[in-house]
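User: For a teaching handout, I'd like to show students what a predicted protein-ligand complex looks like in token form. I'll give you the sequence and the SMILES for zinc ion. Please answer with just the structure.
Assistant: Understood, here is the input followed by the structure.
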Amino acid sequence: MKPKNKQNTVDLYYMEARSKLIDIAAFMDRVERDGFTDDFRYLAFKDALKELDSDNRTRKVLLSLSDPTKELIPVATTKAACGAWPDKPQ
Amino acid sequence: MRYIEPHAHMVSRTTDDYMAMVVAGCKAVCEPAFWAGFDRSSAHGFYDYFCQLTDYEPKRAAKFGLPHFSWLCINPKESEDIKLAEDVIALIPEFLKRDNVLGIGEIGLNKNSRNEMTILEKHVNLAAEYDQLILVHTPHLEDKLKGTQLIVDMIKSDSRIDPGKVLIDHLEEHTAKIVMDAGFWGGLTLYPESKCTSPRAVDIIETYGGDRLWMNSACDWGVSVPLAVPYAAQEMRRRGYDDETLDQVFYQNPVRFLSQSPNFNIGK
Ligand SMILES: [Zn+2]
């Protein structure tokens, strides 16, 4: 699907993306300043950042943060998800 | 504009939300059964909840002139207790006779456990036996990819189920293709932090076409936006889409899926 009146994508989204980029930089500075760099979520986050240097970035970032296993787990011991796969080898 | 809100947990919302939705052009709201934020202690709690979804909440919506429909199930978050889940599933056939019920949902997986899958299979069996539409919840965050694939494989393996009568919800860029290629309908949930933002939901529609995709707010008791669907329409307008396309995406397509249930009737 495409719009009849295609707009300039950079005009539409640059300022928003710029703001989010600076927020990411500030988040990383904050984590490093406060000494939480060993947290598996932060390590997964830094890993996922590498996917920005490719095509299909959104899909690849999401894949990088996903549980890649295929088998059902024996039992659910929590209801929550944390946003990164805790067993990812580092 | 006119639009359908295909997934909203209105029992958790205020009358102000009903008012805002109607003023924004909402023509029908559909409410899947879900987790209350805490585990219910017995099947009786679900009996009362199903009464709320099929009797009390439609009346509350009607005060704002908004047709209200519901989906029934026990949410995967409460599926680990097999006995409780079976007792709840046994209650559902009685409620399927109520005239605002669209089908079985939102069923699915949460942490991708064996018991969750057992209860998903029982729900799918119920839908097949009673010829009901199915609405599927896919897991959150790191569990979504694996859960979506397991769900798609399980439902595809049941030859009684027509994929055109199943909507798999909460798709993102890494799961949309799995669902679209399998012939199901897909839902894009517009949340501020998890699931999809409006711009990403529109990206996915631009990639896969809008024919078998809908957008929903899935507003509930957590951080969520009851007007997320009309906001997404505004996002499409900003990109240059015309009113005719918006009507197709936000009204005609959801009506086409939902009208497969004889109970979905919102007049002309
Ligand atoms: Zn929901």
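For the handout, you might add this sentence: The longest helix of chain A spans residues 9-34.
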